[in-house]
Amino acid sequence: MADAALSLEARLKAAARDLGFADCRICRADEPWEAGARLEEFVDHGRHGDMAWMETTLERRRAPTAMWTDAKSAIMLAMNYGPDSDPLAQLELKAHGNISVYARGADYHDLIKKKLKQLAGQFAQLTGADVKVFVDTAPLMEKPLAAKAGLGWQGKHTNLVSREHGSWLFLGAILTAAELEPDAAETDHCGSCRACLDICPTNAFPAAYQLDARRCISYLTIEHAGPIPAEFRTPIGNRIYGCDDCLAICPWNKFAQTAGEQKLWARAELKLPELEDLAALDDAAFREVFAGSPVKRSGRTRILRNVLVAIGNSGDTGLVASSVLPHLDDEAAMVRGAAVWALWRLDPKRFEAEKAKRLPDEQDEEVGAEWTLTPK
Prior knowledge:
The chain has 19 helices and eight strands. With about 375 residues, it is of the alpha+beta class. The protein has a four-stranded antiparallel sheet, sandwiched between helices. A two-stranded parallel sheet has the order 3-8. A two-stranded antiparallel ribbon has the order 5-6. The longest helix has 20 residues, at about 110-125.
């Protein structure tokens, strides 16, 4: 922020670009907005599923000033994470696990927070104003703020869309007590397009601009703590962590560039790992493979559940002996249940034989139901 001839806002944006951010825009943080009411409706309808934290932090999420009463301006930052290949094409590689593009490397929270702190520190030193930094880890609604600041608009899939960067954007925020000149909000450019709604494998959008997280594959594979409901298992395909379909199909992606920053954080071994290799990971190996990755936070049990669902969808009977049968004895009931379903999908004859041996001794009610109820 060295060029004193520029306005404070222009210097801030130049500094953001120097740190690798794709865009930086500003909005008021202390004005009324409708996002709080929309969130309350989302929670009232139960569409947050197991994410109880959304309900318990609802009051603080209603507005930025509910988080910090002195906040006057929001400095909104975007970082491009555009992939170098089409995630939709990778859904056909059924022997491999599909990890959402954003999670194929270092945790984006760490990547962005470091840069946000650098920018916030420079700004605070220059202005003397108080600042607070946020990267999706506190009850602050970044997407509505980003739209208000003009970084893009919330598309029909509820994620941010940019005319310059498509749907591939990490977001971060700096709240400050400083009074800054706001940018114009972006207008909605979705038009009549409904590609993101129509491609959803589980019909997670009850209407445009509305999401029912309970049906969303990202929620089911990352946040949901129990067995994946039977109706969603086949549509999940080989997605073992998240889902990029509604993002990847967005026509505005044609203007997005592959993220140069991605080379710094993406890891080739997490792009399309083999399901057989993932199924063989014990707890120590799981922690090693996913060290520093957001996948690690979900834990081996939840990820192994997803891997076994993907194996059941693979059609590869060769995985029964190596990757399914061993997990019928897993100490985690959720893993055993997923292995039962995978066995039923791949080898119905072996399923009946194993059922006769194992069902009488199974103590978990949900696993017992997997053996006795015809899976879908």
